[in-house]
Amino acid sequence: MSRDPDSVEVLFLGTGAADWPLPYCPPADRGQVDAYRGRSSVLVDGHILIDCGATVPDAIRHFGVDVDAITDILLTHSHGDHCDAAAIEHLVSMGTRGDPINLWAHPSALAKLAGIDRLRKRELQPGKTVGFSSLAVTALPANHQVPEDTALHFLLQKPKASLLYATDGAWFLKGAWILLKEVKIDALLWDATCGEAQGDWRIFEHNSVDMIRVMRQTLEKQGVLSPTVKIYLTHLSMNLCAPHNDLVARLVPEGLIPAHDGLSITVHR
Question: What angle do CA 191, 197, 203 make, to 5 degrees?
Answer without folding.
Answer: 50
